[in-house]
Design a protein that fits this description.
Structural class: mainly beta
Number of strands: 11
Strand content: over 45%
Distance between the termini: 40 Å
């Protein structure tokens, strides 16, 4: 069974880069779970899910338009990890950040689908 775990700093200063890593266990992200998009999602305080972007098994990254200029998603297949970098952060980027393996049809849903695999989430606060 696939499991995901987010890791990274919980506090980032304004204008710096937020970097998070998602470690996937239970099988290879490119040879076993070939049907998933590997995605990053966040939930700001008091708000709904905001989908940030994803990387496909072919290594193609796709980002939501509003964050595209500041976002990079990449992977290290040797470590079975994928990463998020969000540049020039502001306090508005404060949120719980999740990584997930999602079926393409489920990308962008308002809530997690049981056929997908989500990490437990990690709180990131942007503050000086």
């Amino acid at each position: 069974q696939v499991q995901l775990q987010e890791s990274g700093p919980g506090l980032v200063k304004p204008s710096q880069t937020l970097s998070l890593t998602c470690t996937v266990s239970g099988g290879s992200i490119i040879t076993k779970y070939v049907y998933y998009y590997w995605a990053w999602i966040r939930q700001p305080p008091g708000k709904g899910l905001e989908w940030i972007g994803y990387i496909t098994r072919s290594g193609v990254s796709v980002y939501t338009t509003s964050l595209a200029s500041r976002t990079s998603i990449s992977w290290d297949t040797s470590k079975n990890q994928f990463t998020l970098q969000l540049r020039s952060v502001t306090p508005e980027d404060t949120a719980v950040y999740y990584c997930a393996g999602v079926l393409p049809a489920n990308y962008g849903l308002e809530s997690p689908d049981t056929r997908d695999a989500w990490g437990q989430g990690t709180q990131v606060t942007v503050s000086s």
